[in-house]
Design brief:
Elements (H helix, E strand, L loop, with lengths): L1 H47 L8 H26 L7 H15 L6 H10 L3 H6 L2 H8 L16 H6 L1
């Protein structure tokens, strides 16, 4: 009887430890997941947003939403449903489904090589403004030096209005 209770307690303890270890792993990996997601979103703007320095980034993101929905929407939605996932709110589809689907289906090697190729052609001002250099440091991909980019913050306004 005592042996059975002890076994039950050990099993319960093992389950609780497994949950705690997974929570710790999730916490440690969260910055990497967030950096990857951010880099994918900036990559989508580079590839499909036609960003312009004189317009708000939201306008380029609108073009991204339109293009990704047109090019990847049906395939991504089909994959999502096949995986048995819950229905995603329409406003979140482009951000959390279509953009990663687009990135994962790009030709090339690993994620870092894909990021390096995409960002090698991106406007330096966009990479600076979106702080992709932080993503590069966290994820380990190479990013060219962002020389000649406008200052951020208060110093940026006079440069744009000249």
């Amino acid at each position: 009887m005592i042996r059975r209770e002890l076994k039950s307690q050990v099993n319960d303890l093992e389950k609780r430890i497994a949950v705690a270890v997974q929570a710790k792993r999730d916490k440690v990996n969260a910055p990497l997941r967030q950096a990857r997601m951010h880099a994918i979103q900036v990559a989508a703007v580079v590839l499909y947003g036609e960003p312009k320095i004189e317009e708000p980034l939201g306008i380029a993101w609108s073009r991204v939403e339109e293009m990704l929905t047109k090019k990847f929407g049906a395939a991504a939605d089909e994959w999502w449903l096949r995986e048995g996932e819950e229905e995603l709110h329409p406003n979140l589809r482009v951000l959390f489904l279509y953009a990663p689907f687009m990135f994962n289906n790009r030709p090339g090697g690993n994620d870092n090589l894909k990021f390096e190729r995409i960002f090698s052609e991106a406007p330096a001002w966009l990479l600076k403004f979106t702080a992709v250099e932080w993503d590069a440091k966290l994820l380990g991909f190479k990013l060219r030096k962002l020389v000649g980019t406008p200052e951020l913050g208060r110093e940026a306004r006079p440069l744009l209005s000249r």
